[in-house]
Amino acid sequence: MEKVKIQLSERKEKVILPPNLGFGKYFTNHVFEMDYSPEEGWHNAIIKPLVNMAFHPAAMFIHYGQAAFEGLKAFKRDNGDVVVFRPQDHFERMNNSSARLCMPKIDIPFVIDALKKLVDIERDWIPAVKGESLYIRPFIFGSDSFLGVKPASHYKFVIILSPVGAYYPEGFKPVKILVQDDFARAVKKGMGECKTPGNYAASLLAEEIAIKKGFTQVLWLDGNEQKYIDEVGTMNFFVRFKNEVATPMLNGEILPGVTRRSVVQILKDWNIPVSERLITIEEIVDGYKTGETLSAFGTGTAAIISAVGQLTFKDTNMIFNGNEPDDLEIKLFEEITAIQRGQAEDKHNWIVPVPKGI
Ligand SMILES: *Cc1c(COP(=O)(O)O)cnc(C)c1O
């Protein structure tokens, strides 16, 4: 493919990051975009100033949901170096989502190179504070104007960037999770393993109900029997039993998290027994009563590790570690943060540097 065209914004004022970044509220000045057509494949690759996008009201993704996205992060280290965490894994997952939704794949080396150029241009937008980062949101969608269900023939791929604050500004705080069996997020052979907008729309009502009851998020059980653990909201789920840390195996129904994969690898590196298997909710509840179930946590790019303080299933309230994060959760959080910030060895080549002026 041709080189990425670069069209810089006229805005020359110095970037001043707002004090409370929060999540997903602020966007940098530039975006990366490219178009797909059956004749030309991917083309028109450009980094350009961020402006509102315009669509025909019949643009297919709006009606039929043919779209997928990713979420990954860039960090500014204490010495000013900028790095991205596991971009290859994220774009491979995006291509898997695209394949399931009949969308074209992207050329990963080309897109990683374009991402590095974009992040380099927006260097000043990356907070240098521990816990803060630049959230990267690539997405793809079918853009033809047509009414009728079939795969689109034209697509757009876009990357936007958003500086984000620390997930735990007041310190590592456990969440309160409701196990819910009134709704399903995904079913066997469905789209659960794709990061596609419909999955998130499907999750909203159950989450709204849980939040009204005072919970932070819901834990989804499998869509077919409501018996096995799937995942939590937008995080994968781990349970620490006395002799083993377990996480649901990838069954097509859950999102194959990059953080999940990193945690499994780190536990193996530490010689802590870890298994990817079927876990029933009963096993967790029974284990809680006998003292086998010690704690539970969620994993995802945004929070890295999210300790579960309370897990409620029907009439059973399970409180883990006195509603405080336990030693393993803290250690995993610190390890992944240290790898990202260049303070621990990157044994598995998860870090991709963004050279200045690339
Ligand atoms: C993104 C996501 C995750 C976490 O994936 P990471 O790659 O670790 O960020 C887990 N579950 C769902 C449903 C997600 O959308």
CATH fold group of the largest domain: D-amino Acid Aminotransferase, Chain A, domain 1
User: Biggest β-sheet, characterized?
Assistant: 9 strands, mixed
Per CATH, the superfamily of the largest domain is Aminotransferase class 4, branched-chain amino acid transferase, N-terminal domain
Give the number of helices: 7
**Which molecules are bound besides the chains?**
pyridoxal-5'-phosphate
Proportion in helices: 10-25%
**What is the CATH first-level class name of the largest domain?**
Alpha Beta
* Average pLDDT level: 96
User: Distance between the terminal alpha carbons, to the nearest Å?
Assistant: 18 Å
CATH architecture term of the largest domain: 2-Layer Sandwich
Question: C-alpha Rg, in Å?
Answer: 21 Å
Find the count of extended strands (DSSP E, 2+ residues).
Answer: 18
Shape call: globular
Helix-strand makeup class: alpha+beta
What sequence of helices (H) and strands (E) makes up the elements? EEEHEEEHHEEEHEEEEHEHEEEHE
Taken as a percent bin, the fraction of beta residues is: 25-35%
For the record, the count of structural domains works out to 2
List the uncertain runs. Answer: none
